[in-house]
Amino acid sequence: MGFKSKARKKRIVTNDSSNEKKSKDIEFEGSINCDIKDCNNWADKKVGGRKMAYARAVDVWGSSAFPRKMKKVSLCKAHYRVWKKEKKGEPKEWE
Length: 95
Ligand SMILES: [Zn+2]
Description:
With 95 residues, this protein is an alpha+beta fold. The chain has two helices and two strands.
């Protein structure tokens, strides 16, 4: 009796294609900053940012929330949400 048995076991190689890596929106680098003071979020459209008239934003945060007066302000997603929320409860302008 020899020792001639080459173990021919097929190894089941599991190709783990379900290896999820969730490192998406962490290192997004935009080009537009949120104009609200002390906010470091991006206001790029890609990440849900919005632009709106200065006056409309001042309505919610007051002019002190902005470093200076400008025609349009850029808002990050979070701030835009806040704005939307604020506006929802208010009656429409009567003028
Ligand atoms: Zn913001």
